[in-house]
Amino acid sequence: MTTHGGFEPVFCTIVPPHVLDKLAQAEDPALAGPARRTLQRDAYERTQRRLTTVIGASAVAAVADGKPQRTVYDARHGTDLPGRKVRGEGEDPGRDATVNRAYAGLGATFELLLTAYQRDSIDGNGLPLDATVHYDRDYNNAFWNGEQMVFGDGDGEIFLDFTIPIDVIGHELVHGVTQYTANLTYFGQPGALNESVSDVFGSLIKQYTLGQTAAEADWLIGAGLLAPRVTGVALRSMKEPGTAYDDDVLGKDPQPASMDDYVRTGRDNGGVHINSGIPNHAFYLAATALGGHAWERAGQVWYDVLTGGELREQAMFTDFATLTVKAARERYGDGEELDAVSKAWEQVGVRTL
Q: Quick one: pLDDT at residue 51?
């Protein structure tokens, strides 16, 4: 069994660098300017994350009592974190819809983890959940920096407020779960698995909140985030990778749905946001084959693998797929769960050992 310290966090954003790179090349300065500033800010935060990893982050007091400890801060369009406290745990909602959405999203993530998987917060030990909203000006991203969530307001031209899609909030927080468990390396296939796990559970958090079955879910990541002028519906589609957007400014969604179209690139940390479409699609296939609520059987298998201690930091798609087959058999026996998981990986061209 492999043990994971879980304390080597990476800087993870919801909008991939390749999307911002494309946007930064737009002729319209109203589009290119915010994208360029966002890339610069992301580069700075990424460097800060590395420094914090080397120096060590300050300890955070946690109480494992099965109740969330949420705090939302307002950066007031600055970049100093965490900013001014605007809402604490148990306090009534205020007039700022962005603050209220962030608070609710933190709570929804906590609730799914606790109710479905008996996990007390993202570290399993009651870690307080902090979020900062109104970060910077026209900031086109949201990120988990190893310690807290941060949300931009978007530029209003391409991206809207990043607290709008609850799956974006869940996606970023689940990077924290991965940080404290398998700690998947953020490059190449391990990095794509890191991103896929966040998409999977981000989608499950949305489905849980809406009370949706696998058949009723839209399986989109970031629906509602794109501004009206954009030709697209979301950042990614787990149901049909490669179809989330096809826009004259953003370009076409590059995600593959199977290994037949696997993208080999040195950009985006070896394509972590691109090739994540393959394991995303495998989860969608398994979940819809099983039916019912996806967070129950399919989600349980994925959670077992993420937290079971056997998933290596350098795990490849085949390693992850093999462990899901093993987990399905161990939890459910040789039934429809095992069949659904095995066939899903076969359909996307990932072999299991």
A: 60
